[in-house]
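Reopening this ticket.

The earlier resolution said the output was attached, but the attachment link was broken on my side. Pasting everything inline this time so it's all in one place.
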Amino acid sequence: MDDAGPKSKRIRISGDDKDWGMDQPIGGLSNLASPLQKEKGLVMLPELPAAVLEEVFVNVPPKEVVCVCRLVCREWKELADRATLWRERCRRDRFQPHDITRLPTDWRMFYFLCKKRRNLLKNPSAEEQFEGWKILENGGDKWSIEDVSEQPHPDETVKKFFVTSYEPCKKFQIINLSKEGYNKSFMDEIQPDILISDWYAPRWDCGSMYEICVELLNQKKKVISKFCPEPVYFEQWNDHKWEQMTHVFRGYGRGVRFIRFCHGGSDTKNWAGWYGIRVTKSSLEIGPSEPE
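Inline output:
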């Protein structure tokens, strides 16, 4: 004889909920259990309509949807994998593709890449002197830092920049992807876009040169792929404003574990002081990029 009551699911829980991988149990599952159910490690939950359950999932922390809810049963797994669920999370968090005519093929991956995306470079705009940077070359009167004044940056929040002297000046950072939360399997299997951006500008009254080289490195710090365009030269008495150098690494293959970001330059007149190229607001991000 069929049970006339509402359908339910049997879910095994641990006594302290740590098996759920969270500090707090989802929906207070432990509190719903009777003493006998707790002793047996089982909880009976009513089966909710898919639309209601999807709304619940949208409000559960995303990592727990994947690592906890998805493992409960087949129905929950199918729901946790639905594109509509992750597309709705993207909408609520305002994560939208740059080109609406080319939608993501995997909305869940798109969501997590957007959620995790941030600038991996430390001190990109000289607010903390040279903290985070290693000096590779320090020619002439060495690197210096100046305030943005007569040549405002397009981003009004940028207040300082690094400036080179009359002999080559270069500085760099090496990003350890594992320490930044991008593990080996993720980098090898997903191979997400790696986005590079750097802002540079010359003085109007002195010629200068700008150069950048970004390298994707393996575990032994051998080069897998690199972006090293030809140096950019500016003539004296120029009217150039701030310009942006950008690049996107795609399809770079397996094995990327570190990224080396190096930039700099010099003036071309050998003038004492700091008449060389200016750089600021450097950026290195991992995440969806605008399609080419």
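Reporter confirms the inline version is readable. The chain has two domains: 8-116, 134-286. Confidence is low (pLDDT under 50) at residues 1-40.
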